[in-house]
Amino acid sequence: MQKRVIVIMGATGVGKTSICSYIGEKYNIPQVITHTTRPMRDGEADGVDYYFETPASFKEKHFLESVSYAGNSYGSSMEGLKKAWAKSDLAVTVLDTKGGITYKEELGDQAWLWYVTVSDQKELVERLHERGDGDVAVEKRINSAEFKRDLKLPEELEGNAEVLLNDDWKSLKAQVDGLINQSKANARFS
Asked: Which SUPFAM superfamilies match (predicted)?
């Protein structure tokens, strides 16, 4: 059985982390824990949401991909992916679209790309405020080149990614369930 990783991509605020949590809870699919130098938010835990690193410790890791975003570093290591695959033939991770391109290049068909979007991009600003990001942080985020890049599926990934619309959580869960159940029916993972 070929091991695969669901790569959830999209702009900040589209619900990537919520989808990842849902998949883990409902289907017992392990998450590939990624690394970041950004500060921990209320309710987050080291080794669960991210491995929270200092700039120095971040540089010591062996990354499959890494990126700087809004002044912080983010990355996922091959070791982290292998730890998730040791638990299941299917794992899940949350990346930006640049990371999704790298995963596709490095892992080929083992990377199952999911791009999440919304109908109204103004909704994303509201979601960022709701999750506790301050006005300055939200303004910095939505004006960053990375945020603007992630608002659309990159040309390199067109035709290679599932596109999920997250205007409504119930509808989104139905889309996710359909993809996972179809994959199970096709025996893509055990």
From this structure: P-loop containing nucleoside triphosphate hydrolases
Count of domains for the chain: 1
Euclidean distance between the first and the last CA atom of the chain, given in angstroms as a whole number? 7
Residue range 132-157: average pLDDT? 80
Query: Is the Cα torsion angle 111, 29, 118, 48 positive or negative in sign?
Result: negative
Question: CA–CA separation, 162 vs 114, rounded Å?
Answer: 5
155 is written with which tokens?
A: 């040309």
Q: Residue 104 falls within a domain, yes or no?
A: yes
Domain range enclosing 151: 4-184
pLDDT in tens, 149-178: 888 899 999 999 999 999 999 999 999 999
Query: Which pLDDT belongs to residue 1?
Result: 65
What stretches of 28-112 show up as alpha helix (H) in DSSP? 55-59, 78-87, 97-107
